[in-house]
């Protein structure tokens, strides 16, 4: 697939998605969002891909927010449609069925921070800065920031982030649980690849169902979530991979999973 604003590469069961607009700090316009939609649909359909590593081009920014010139043109009706379209892309990323590791290599602001939050996990370089500065522009987060941020860090800390519009450092983001790890910039992709390798070694369907249990369970009561977990556990028990995994353990050998 050919793209103008992003790069999609595939290697060793990993898809690498890079927002490639470094001259504007990888700012998101709708054309970029639609390319991301196409790329993630392609990844979802590609059975050879097990994990996605998502980052931004250059050394300054992961994604520094929306294209403000494009944003300024919206009225109430078009603004609502604009956010719905963006939210649908982030929902695709979050519910891809394959882990997406965000490598935050600089600024992750506004829509950039929101995309990172839609990813399965987040790694940040030591110089990364994260924030939801939308109130400084007279708007609110529109790509899920008011919903995913409190789910990740709690209501109070999320309110502080959203209402002040201030940026926080990678270290502070790690302290409050917004990012999983902070590493040197040069180690960001290698660390993501190391995590990806561990995931790829596991049973594909088990990984998929574990993600489904967590993502859907977050929106349920504990009782409903436990029922979902038991159901998906049962589904796993009917797979060839479960048979292979348990037999390999008992035979003291490495399992060979087939995703069946």
From TrEMBL:
InterPro entries reported for this sequence: ClpP/crotonase-like_dom_sf, Enoyl-CoA_hydra/iso, Enoyl-CoA_hydra_C
Presence of the UniProt keyword Oxidoreductase in the record: no
The enzyme's E.C. designation: 4.2.1.17
Pfam families listed in its UniProt record: ECH_1
Keywords annotated in UniProt: Isomerase, Lyase
Superkingdom assignment: Bacteria
Gene Ontology BP annotations: fatty acid beta-oxidation
Gene3D superfamilies: 2-enoyl-CoA Hydratase, Chain A, domain 1, Lyase 2-enoyl-coa Hydratase, Chain A, domain 2
Molecular-function annotations in GO: enoyl-CoA hydratase activity; isomerase activity
Family: Belongs to the enoyl-CoA hydratase/isomerase family.
Listed name of the protein: Enoyl-CoA hydratase-isomerase
Organism this protein belongs to: Candidatus Sulfotelmatobacter kueseliae
